[in-house]
Fold this sequence. Notes:
CATH topology: TIM Barrel
CATH superfamily: Aldolase class I
Shape: globular
Structural class: alpha/beta
Number of domains: 1
Strand order of the largest sheet: 1-4-5-6-7-10-11-12
Largest sheet: 8 strands, parallel, barrel
Amino acid sequence: MIIYPAIDIRGGKCVRLTQGRYNDITIFSDDPLNMALQFQNAGAKYLHVVDLDAARGDADNRGIISRIAKELNIPVQTGGGIRTVADIEDVLGFGISRVILGTSAVKNPEMVNEAVKKYGERIAVGIDAKNGFVAIEGWEKTSEIKAVEHAKRMESYGVQTIIYTDIATDGMLSGPNLLAMSEMVKKVNIDVIASGGVASLKDIRQLKEAGVAGVIVGKAIYTGDVDLKKALEMAES
Length: 237
């Protein structure tokens, strides 16, 4: 199992939201690149970066994300505002290992099909769920599509990785939605990366037992609730 330390970027700063609310934001660092290097130095094998401005269509932080990809020696996956084939080509072009399609995968699933044919495993799909339904546009709207059905459709297109976020638990340090994660793992035959609510090493162990391929850890690292080095040891044992 892979631990993905998370860097969410808003206005050029490393931040965390609570339950995806843009008006409930905490700044943890003015230098996302420095934070990324710290995670790499701690032993992280992969990094998860989200462009919160681009997710809303406000602006983007691609310059910073490009620098992170170029400076680090470990792979980086990124999502937020990647809505067209041109966006995919642009982001992959500056050294990102895997792009995450979220809203665009709901609104334009054929684009996912096209992208997977061209880029294969470098295309992942982010499925962010509220009460089992897919949320879109920076989590500010909820679609009528069930998360599991959406995942199955993406699997049928050849997507090999989904990032599954339970919005109710995200940023709450209340523990992950193990039931939802377990159900998703059972319903699809592709890698499921769990996101949302991780607050302890116990949470990581339980997610590993649930069969997820990876766990994204954000706020808990910044607050010290999770020791990244210990989490990495647990994931690899």
